[in-house]
Known about the structure:
Elements: E1 18-19, H1 30-38, H2 53-63, E2 70-73, H3 75-86, E3 91-96, H4 100-108, E4 112-117, E5 131-135, H5 147-156, E6 161-165, H6 175-178, E7 188-193, E8 206-209, H7 212-220, H8 229-240, H9 242-245, H10 249-263, E9 269-271, E10 278-283, H11 288-299, E11 301-302, E12 304-305, E13 316-320, H12 324-337
Parallel strand pairs: 1-11, 3-4, 3-5, 5-6, 6-7
Antiparallel strand pairs: 2-8, 7-8, 9-10, 10-13, 12-13
Helix pairs in contact: 1-8, 2-8, 3-4, 10-12
Amino acid sequence: MIEGHGNNIYDYSEAIGYDFSSNVAFNGNSDEIVNFLKGNLDCIKNYPDPCARRLSSKIAQHCSEKSASILVTGGAAEAFYLLAQLLGGARSAIMTPSFAEYEDACRLHKHHCTYIDISQFSKSDFSPYRSVWLGNPNNPDATLIPATEILSRCHAYPDTLFIVDYAYQELTQEKQLIEISGKRAKNLILTHSLTKSFAIPGIRLGYIVASAEIIAALSRGRAPWSVNSLALEAGCFIMDNYNRLLPNIEELMGESLFLQRELRQNPNLESLSSRCNFFLSRLKNGSAAELKERLVREFGILIRDASNFRGLDESYFRLGAQSRTANIKLIEAINKICK
């Protein structure tokens, strides 16, 4: 999905003063990471380690895994395409609504896809499928599935691979509910992003946690040097300072709940409840595309038109909470438009 994603500021000639279209933490500590990279620019004089051994080791320690179970990727997006490639032609179930890259990656590699509402995850029969794809927390609706339920599904369908996108794991106060702790099921594959929580989406950095056999197979099918030297340095710095660099989740969720609560006061809107920094809203009249264009044109505010998420219609848009000042600007702008 090259077009239609969040943070698509390049599509507009107007200056974007406030960007609610991305789920990146507004209070991430990217400035400290940038300053660290400024002092380590010499790393670009050499090729990056194609195996990302130093970073893989640090991630493995963080995840209580062996390095052989870690694959560093150029963002979570590379992870999805590598996994879809490995399972080319498979029957796959994609929980919806969901990040479009799951479907795009599967279609590119000739999967036979079935789409199942994420609310049915605990009740669905997954025996016909080689792989099941979902986000936890799920993008765009912020659905949370307890880790115990995911592990239960893995054990019930041992011949099915469950691919769970944990890009937003750190952006909810319910982390303990969804975090996979203890022994990971052999048919469970976790994808992670280091760019959302740490507010460095331009770096493109993520990783996969899976069995050593799956990681080895993925490694054989990828292009060399897909993760550049600066990204690897950033990743090592993040892992060395992980908890300190995480955003203040109380502040983040406080602003999300504030924005949800205030928008519900508008009778022309419906905002879905969320325990993450992002949430869905729906217009009772009009289209999200029209609202998006007016907000950009009249107020310099960018939101995410969510109508291109499978299962959602033209009335849906997604918001990533920002600072209190920015949130108030958005509330005032929407109230002026949606009278």
